[in-house]
Amino acid sequence: MADLQLNDVAAEKAVGIYNNLRLPDVPGQPTLAEAGADWFRDLIRAAFGSADPETGERQVGEIFCLVPKKNSKTTNAAATGLTALLLNETPNAPMQIIGPTKEIAATCFNQIKGMIEADPADPDTGESYLQNRFHVRDHKEEIFDRLNGSTLKVKSFDMKVVTGSIPILTIIDELHILGAVHYASRVLAQIRGGMITRPDALLLIITTQSDVVPAGVFKTELEYARKVRDGKVKGGNVLPCLYEFPEKIQADESKPWRDPKYWPMVLPNLGKSISIDRLVRLYRLAVEKGIEEEIIFASQHLNIQIGMGLHTDRWIGVDFWPSASVPMDLQELLDRSEVATIGIDGGGLDDLLGFAVIGRDRHTRAWHSWARAWVHPEALEKRKEIAPRLKDFVAQGDLVICDDPTADLRQIAGICAEVHAAGLLPEAHGIGLDPYGVAALIDELALVGLEGELLSAIPQGARLSPAIWGLERKLKDGTFTHSGQPMMDWCVSNARTEQRGNAVMITKAVAGKGKIDPLIGVFNAAVLMARNPEASGGGLNDFLANPVMVI
């Protein structure tokens, strides 16, 4: 936790209120003073003790909390909302708790309602303070404060629901689920836009890690919180509270996080809502079911970030892909290479068009790949579940959204011409294409002088097996590297294998919603590089030797 200059009186008053709330769904309905954990009291102090007593402006305007499952996340979100209502002195102030689904939102509302109903009667008056002060409106999933007209409403995540509100408090539960919601960033922008006019407004995001590769708004917010935590971003008002192992532990191929002795590092509610013994039993059950269940357990209960898909039918190259990353742009690849081959995997308007270049190093003869893909707007509309992830790749420069029907074909032809001009393509079999649906691309390549024997149709399906097996071995022995592009990490994680006799297949159908087109482009280029080609030395080399020939 950051070292904050807090108003101790306000902070301890908030903690006192929080401590006196009762857990409604635990035998004996203990108070949070008994059942709560200190880690969340620290957040309560930061949330309500950071406001300037004169201006009301908060030193902490946002809190991003990443905490594993079963650490009383939703219960604490509910308690924070109720604490905010009890501390609020602004008349008619709106507050909201937003869940990604109706079920999660309803769970949070029922916790608030239960805390109010669990408030004991005063021995002198025979009445409950909380029940007298708050009117629970079940049909609206709303708590109304009879004292000053303020409301705390529990909502599900929707553009129509949050637009136009100016809340003094917003709590977003389980942001990781919203990574696949294509409009999530717009909704969050609406929430922040509504809060900006209120210097005393507070946004609390509390979530577990995603059980898939982080994407969209979740990926953006998590990465920003990490930058604040690591001191890379300064001067803002976001407080990160991230319970996760260091990246080197998460990425270590020996998987040290499997040892329960490390688990207390990321379980702040240990001894309260969760125990190591119960988690070990659950973990052993997951392991017995297979690697996929183990990874889901690790992401949800230990906040292990999934960077590469680990599945029983995964391509074995996945295991060696992370260590083969050597960041390099296309120009650097061309500068280092003695020869290059190109692989292209086409798709329809609702698919990706994958493109890859493999260069053979002029000194070591090791292979290095670089990739790019193109997507039409129709695909973003039709594939809404992956649209946020695709937009991340667009921002990183690895994916291009086509602004007209032939933008992808023209740009691919342009890059092919660039490689050819560098004199790196062999005279024959330099550009490998999926033989289906490439007529328009062949025409475009012909316009830049790339045709005939230079183009090769690469058989797909089981006939790609030599390239698949070959890259597995080269990844393991270090003679194949790639440019470390997040898009390719995702494509490789989507690669599923299917045995066909003695051959192996990696197909779009097996990969499902996850796209693999750029990876197939790499395989197509690998088929041609496996021929051990020699560069033609044409293009730029010929121009330098005889400039007149170009005129």
Structure description:
It is built from 22 helices and 17 strands. It has helices spanning 8-20, 32-35, 38-49, 73-87, 102-117, 129-133, 159-162, 184-195, 216-229, 247-251, 276-289, 291-301, 330-336, 377-382, 387-396, 407-421, 439-447, 465-477, 486-494, 508-511, 517-529, 540-545, and strands spanning 62-66, 94-99, 134-137, 142-145, 151-156, 169-173, 202-207, 238-242, 337-345, 352-361, 367-375, 399-401, 431-433, 455-457, 480-482, 497-500, 503-506. Residues 538-551 have low confidence and may be disordered. It folds into 3 domains: 8-243, Rossmann fold, CATH 3.40.50; 256-306, no CATH class; 317-541, Nucleotidyltransferase, domain 5 (2-Layer Sandwich), CATH 3.30.420.240. Helices cover 39% and strands 16% of the residues.
Highlighted features:
elongated; alpha/beta; Nucleotidyltransferase, domain 5; Rossmann fold; 551 residues
Strand elements, count: 17
Largest sheet: 8 strands, mixed
The rough form would be described as elongated
Low-confidence stretches: 538-551
CATH hierarchy: architecture of the largest domain:
3-Layer(aba) Sandwich
> What is the overall number of helices?
22
Beta-strand content estimate: 15-25%
* CATH topology tier name of the largest domain: Rossmann fold
Helical residue percent band: 25-40%
Which CATH class of the largest domain? Alpha Beta
Major sheet strand order: 3-4-5-2-6-7-1-8
What structural class do helix, strand and pairing data support?
A: alpha/beta
Domain module count: 3
Residue-averaged pLDDT? 88
Radius of gyration, Cα only, in angstroms?
28 Å
CATH superfamily of the largest domain: P-loop containing nucleotide triphosphate hydrolases
